[in-house]
Design brief:
mainly beta, twelve-stranded antiparallel β-barrel, 1 helix
Length: 238
């Protein structure tokens, strides 16, 4: 009876250790961050707003999954003056050099003349430069865009996506990032740029200053082609 009990205890301890190890490993695969702060905009929206942004990345040996959400809401005298959200998911299947990716994005901006715009792309991503604190990667792919204007008319077109992602680790507490992307369609080209500098304040908390620019080459009447955002936010990583 003692031998059986000892054996059972050993099995339980072993299983518990395996479960704890697998749980720790699963948790280590995830990295996330959220940010909140004040935003000053110009273009289709000229307001002082509150902005929320978050992303989660799961990086394993063969796959990387990234989910991103960016929202902006503002009202003045109980009248909504800004309401937009942009989200995307990208899954990368890793190769010896670079990766194959699939990407889906959705944007809903009540003040840009469109009810929504959605894009689906597949392509190839790879590092272009990696030298100590400086890293540069690029994406190239083909896809499809669906744009629905406020009148309910849908505009569909094939697109080519090109993107660059540059990161400079200035020191152990500060980082500069530059994101550039363009989706080129037969009727409309949408380009985005985000420049940001972040500095750690304490632990996993950082302060970030960013400038974002979005340009749409063809927009409905009464709307601007270019929107800009200058934001100061607090970022928490976990």
């Amino acid at each position: 009876m003692t031998i059986k009990a000892t054996t059972l205890s050993s099995i339980i301890v072993t299983l518990s250790m395996l479960f704890a190890t697998s749980t720790t490993l699963a948790q280590s695969l995830w990295s996330s961050e959220v940010e909140l702060g004040a935003v000053f905009t110009s273009g289709n929206t000229d307001e002082q707003n509150i902005k929320f942004r978050g992303q989660a990345v799961r990086d394993s040996e063969q796959w990387q999954h990234k989910v991103y959400l960016d929202t902006l809401n503002s009202s003045k005298n109980d009248v909504k003056s800004a309401q937009k959200s942009y989200l995307f998911y990208q899954g990368d299947y890793k190769l010896q050099v670079g990766s194959l990716f699939g990407r889906a994005s959705y944007e809903n901006d009540k003040f840009n003349g469109y009810d929504y715009q959605a894009e689906f792309t597949v392509g190839y991503s790879r590092p272009l430069y990696d030298n100590g604190p400086h890293k540069l990667s690029g994406d190239a792919g083909l896809g499809y865009r669906i744009s629905e204007v406020m009148t309910g008319v849908s505009e569909n077109e094939a697109i080519v996506r090109l993107a660059l992602d540059y990161v400079w680790d200035i020191n152990e507490n500060a980082q500069f990032k530059q994101l550039l992307s363009t989706e080129i369609g037969s009727d409309t080209t949408i380009s985005r740029s985000e420049s940001s500098v972040s500095a750690n304040i304490a632990g996993d908390l950082a302060m970030k200053f960013s400038i974002s620019v979005k340009n749409n080459s063809d927009v409905p009447l009464g709307t601007e082609k270019t929107d800009t955002e200058s934001a100061v936010t607090l970022v928490y990583k976990f």
